[in-house]
Design a protein that fits this description.
Structural class: alpha/beta
Strand order of the largest sheet: 2-1-3-4
Distance between the termini: 36 Å
Length: about 140
């Protein structure tokens, strides 16, 4: 978790799929939400908002993402994701999100990222995983071509 500074008691859930067809079919969205809600319960956090997005993780301008971050900033909620790659697949944007969360004291939890007690190590792990997610996108593009 990128640590919250405000001893949060509430959370927001963010889910994202990349294609319109996945959005129409609901592929992955339900499972992402269930996993994130389970993590919120495990952490003793009340879920006060769920944000669902159908947009590429490479894009930085996503309406539901913006709404979710604004709610987290306004309420002090922890952001919970099923997988870090649901947040972004862009290394530079992940660094921006990490800096934004630190500046506003927003905690971010991804169910697939180890929660370490050292904030510097956690930030480092998040950035490594963001780089891996970006690499996966590029490799998928190359295989598709």
């Amino acid at each position: 978790m990128i640590a919250a500074k405000n001893n949060a008691k509430v959370s927001v859930v963010y889910t994202r799929v990349s294609t319109t067809q996945q959005g129409i079919d609901g592929l992955g969205i339900k499972a992402q939400e269930e996993r994130a809600r389970a993590k919120a319960e495990e952490l003793g956090l009340e879920v006060i908002g769920v944000f669902k997005e159908v947009e590429s993780g490479r894009k930085n301008k996503r309406p539901e993402f913006v709404k979710m971050m604004n709610m987290a900033i306004e309420t002090g909620a922890v952001v919970i994701l099923s997988h870090m790659s649901r947040l972004t697949r862009n290394f530079n944007f992940m660094s921006h999100i990490a800096d934004l969360s630190e500046r506003h004291g927003i905690g971010i939890v991804a169910c697939d990222v180890p929660q370490l007690s050292d904030p510097a190590q956690t930030k480092f792990i998040w950035r490594i995983m963001a780089a891996v997610a970006e690499l996966e996108v590029e490799q998928t593009r190359q295989r598709t071509r």
